[in-house]
Specification:
Elements lengths: L2 H19 L11 E6 L8 E4 L16 E3 L3 E4 L2 H12 L4 H15 L9 E8 L4 E7 L22 H5 L10 H12 L9 H9 L1 E2 L2 H8 L5 H4 L1 H7 L11 E2 L2 H13 L2 H4 L1 H12 L10 H6 L3 E3 L2 E5 L2 E5 L5 H13 L11 H21 L10 H4 L2 H8 L32 E8 L5 E9 L7 E2 L2 E2 L12 E2 L2 E2 L17 E4 L5 E5 L7 H13 L5 H6 L3 E3 L4 E4 L5 H9 L4 E4 L6 E5 L5 E5 L6 E4 L1
Parallel strand pairs: 21-22
Antiparallel strand pairs: 1-2, 3-24, 4-12, 4-25, 5-6, 5-13, 6-9, 7-8, 10-11, 11-18, 12-13, 14-15, 16-17, 18-19, 19-23, 20-21, 23-24
Helix pairs in contact: 2-3, 3-5, 3-6, 6-10, 14-15, 14-17, 14-18, 15-20
Length: 606
């Protein structure tokens, strides 16, 4: 059978439910706009809006049911990636081995969200050691970067679009060295073997998904047409790639071969490293500061997992600079003092959820940063007495903009600042036959990253996760740009331990700063409302980043919207584009997986 015939059949069976729905998405822009459309079903009388917080636009909702397996399971954001990971497990590899193959495949088939040109955070439960590990593979700022990186000659912040496209925004990628560090410590299969399927798929081509095709067609990242390498790949002959088209990426296959043969040295030194540096320094827009020494010197960080109690569980995530873990745990700590009820669709618990989020975001924006540069009082912010005092601020009406708290003994030495964190990220969860568990979130920042493409992959624009303005009211901003510094992130991979200290759930999500709310709300669904993983992921979204309350268009009940408005909330209604992927270990030992119906992910297992 010809490859194109295979492609057509594969596209129909794999992605058919998305073709119609992907045409229904709303647009996005730098600033919130009113689209003039009205939501249907549950909120027909309410206006739908979009926001700069959601540049990787929503592309439909396809109902999903939970998937069960007996031995092992993978949930990833694209079927090619999920299946590649499953095949590694079927060959006897473990969860870390599968993670390497999944991330390599995502680089090829989901280039808008993550890849070897970016970074990420990994949680790993080692069943034999009965120990939870966490690995920080976040990007760092080049050594030549200074706090005025995103300021113009007048000392004012440059425009959002000038910041995100081109070489200036590129941080030192961390994901390759992170995966290698995890594999060297815990992997079982040969490193090179983990790249075999991604190499073959890059050479033979993959079927472009409706989601990828649509994001290219709407030019969500203008850099794709402005920078020649990306333009040639995503707009061959001047036309956007189309869903169902077989797209080959031979340069990426060569890059994978080099990494497979030489390990991370093949990425951080030699011709591939030089190609990245040249692409950044000679970018057609906003040439950047990356040097070979930045790549050579990059190091991952093994950190202590950040865990806190919620009900009878221990919820664990990443330490700083992932502000997501701390914020989620703060929210849960506050909610433990509030009546979250027994049903997901009551309005009052949603109100309490938004207020806990306001308070957590106020603290996040003030305190969170790279701990190597700015001391972050994590323990103090998670103290039971402090969280109880914060929960006491929650009233029956919306509190308005929350202010950061000041735990006992903590001095306010830095101030909060605005950032432009974008939701083009990916999450996958894995449980292998030995009971090892991976929860990993990775990103290249904005959809298609900086649009700087080199040797088949896109480079991140993670430096825009720093606050552009380095000082406020005469005091430094904690998350300002500094050389060698990791930008603050909202990524929040989660592993939940039960009352016996055994792994129960693995989950996480893309979504920029909304990750914190997506993950926290799913946890409440699992731990308070006794939903299974898929049911919790399916819940209508509600977010508040210490501003307006946003509910998910066409999903949120009218009772939420009207009830919140009566409590004084300013309510926006818009598509909320999460990508939550999770696995639960059932009491009988079976695995239950859920994939977000808002994206094209897949659960596979045996």
């Amino acid at each position: 059978m010809l490859l194109n015939d295979i492609a057509r059949r594969y596209a129909v069976t794999l992605f058919a439910p998305f073709f119609a729905l992907f045409l229904l998405a709303g647009c996005s822009s730098e600033h919130a706009i009113n689209t003039g459309n009205t939501a249907t079903e549950n909120n027909t009388q309410h206006q739908v809006e979009t926001s700069s917080a959601d540049p990787e636009r929503a592309t439909g909702f396809v109902a999903r049911e939970a998937v069960y397996a007996d031995d092992y399971m993978v949930v990833a954001a694209n079927p090619y990636a999920a299946e590649a990971g499953e095949r590694i497990l079927a060959k006897g590899g473990n969860a870390i081995d599968a993670a390497v193959a999944i991330q390599a495949m995502l680089t090829l088939v989901e280039p808008q969200s993550s890849g070897i040109g970016g970074g990420g955070f990994l949680l790993y439960w080692h069943a034999e050691n009965q120990t939870l590990y966490s690995l920080d593979a976040r990007e760092v700022a080049p050594k030549l970067a200074t706090q005025d990186l995103f300021l113009n000659e007048q000392g004012e912040p440059i425009s959002w679009i000038d910041a995100v496209v081109g070489g200036r925004s590129v941080g030192v990628p961390g994901i390759v060295k992170g995966l290698e560090a995890a594999h060297q410590r815990f992997g079982t299969m040969a490193w090179a073997q983990l790249f075999a399927e991604p190499i073959t798929r890059a050479e033979q081509g993959f079927v472009v998904s409706p989601r990828l095709a649509q994001l290219v067609a709407v030019e969500m990242n203008p850099g794709l047409k402005q920078l020649s390498a990306a333009r040639d790949y995503f707009y061959p002959n001047g036309q956007a790639i189309e869903a169902g088209h077989v797209l080959k990426n031979e340069p990426l296959a060569r890059s994978f071969r080099r990494i497979a043969e030489h390990g991370s040295d093949g990425f951080y030194t030699g011709p591939l490293a030089q190609a990245m540096v040249t692409a950044v320094q000679q970018a057609e827009r906003a040439p950047g500061l990356l040097q070979l020494q930045d790549l050579v010197d990059y190091q991952v960080e093994w950190r202590e997992p950040l865990c806190a109690p919620y009900r009878v569980y221990q919820v664990c995530s990443m330490e700083q600079p992932s502000s997501g873990g701390l914020a989620v745990l703060q929210m849960l700590g506050m909610l433990s003092h509030l009546d979250m009820g027994t049903t997901a669709f009551a309005e009052a618990p949603q109100h309490y959820f938004t207020q806990a989020s306001r308070l957590a975001f106020a603290d996040r924006n003030h305190y969170s940063a790279d701990p190597a540069f700015t001391p972050v009082p994590v323990n103090e912010l998670l103290q039971a007495n402090y969280l109880a005092s914060r929960a006491a601020l929650v009233a029956e009406n919306d509190m308005g903009v929350a202010q950061p708290g000041q735990p006992a003994g903590v001095k306010l030495t830095a101030v909060a600042g605005m950032d432009y964190e974008q939701p083009s990220t990916s999450h996958f969860s894995i449980v292998d036959a030995q009971g090892n568990m991976v929860s990993m979130t990775s990103s290249i920042e904005m959809g298609f990253g900086s649009a700087v493409m080199v040797e088949g992959f896109l480079l991140n624009n993670q430096l825009t996760d720093f606050t552009f303005v380095p000082e406020k009211e005469g005091r430094p901003v904690a998350n300002r740009v500094e050389p060698g510094k990791r930008p603050r992130s909202s990524m929040a991979p989660i592993i939940v331990l039960d009352e016996n200290g055994q792994p129960l759930h693995a989950l996480g999500s893309p979504g920029g700063s909304r990750i914190i709310n997506y993950v926290a709300h799913t946890l409440v669904g699992l731990l308070d409302w006794n939903l299974n993983m898929q049911e919790a992921i399916n819940l209508p979204h509600i977010t508040n980043l210490n501003g307006r309350t946003t509910v998910e268009a066409e999903r949120a009940p009218d009772a939420w919207i009207e009830g919140l408005r009566k409590r004084g909330h300013s309510v926006d209604i818009r598509p909320l584009n999460s990508g939550i992927h999770g696995i639960s270990i059932m009491p009988d030992g079976r695995l239950l997986g859920g994939a977000d119906p808002r994206r094209e992910g897949k659960v596979v297992g045996q």
